[in-house]
Amino acid sequence: MSSSSQTGLTRRNWLAAAPGMLAAPALLAQSQAEQSARSGKRRREIIKHFDFSQGSGGVLAGFTDYHLQTADLNFLAEIRELPKELNVFSRNRRAFYLSCNNRPDDIFMFLKVPLTAADGVEQDQRYKVSLQFEVASNSTNCAGAGGNQANVYLKAGGTAVEPVPLLIGEYVSINVDKGQQSEGREDLGVIGNIWNGQECEPDPKDRKWVMLRRTYDHPKPVTTLHEQLWIAVGTESGYEAVTGVYYYSIDVKLTPLDK
Q1: How much is the mean pLDDT over the chain?
Q2: What does the pLDDT look like over 160-171, one tens digit per residue?
Q3: In sequence order, what are the residues at sequence separation of 6 or more whose Cβ sits closer than 8 angstroms to the Cβ of residue 40?
Q4: pTM score, two decimals?
Q5: How many DSSP H helices and E strands does the chain contain?
Q6: pLDDT number for residue 146
Q7: Among 58, 130, 136, 150, which residue is least crowded by beta carbons within 10 Å?
Q8: Is the distance from CB of 233 to CB of 131 less than 8 angstroms?
């Protein structure tokens, strides 16, 4: 066989083999790109804003830490206008109002909302939970039977499961670990209290409303069980009287973390 025939055969063999030889790097590059895309999706921060200009916006209210036989608790959860004395930068003046008569000296009243796959939440992913929220209070540090108004503690955090009331005998508890009153725990932490800085006004009509702005970074990452992570903010009261607060806005940031 001539040298030219040998060369032609060699070229034909190489060209025949080339698609297979080139396919492996191409597939590897595609696989790396897909992994990078998936990794990028996991690592994307999730930022969500909630206000109540159009209603509850999927935010739900709850009340726990009381005995079923306790009467006259007067639970109230509704969207209503802010008090006229409060000035806000937005045209929106609607807020989520929570109120109760804390006769058991321990009631936890809270708002909760899920972030889901539609927001970018992934299953089995660790997230750092950061919150900013605005809540209006007329707490002027007046004394009550169980303490003063500074004993109404703000709490917030994130959980992999929906926070729901848990009935234990005749007592309504909750299924997440929030601690008691001034103590925070694994799922919810304490962010101070609702005292608005004013001294006591004996007549509730003379107590001024003040907008409090709070920022909170939950110390323990939350690992999702499904494509869902629940946010909760609320108050736990050691003040044995009526307490009411207006939640004006809630801002959430979920930062994905490596496992």
Answers
A1: 83
A2: 999 999 999 999
A3: none
A4: 0.81
A5: 1, 17
A6: 64
A7: 58
A8: yes
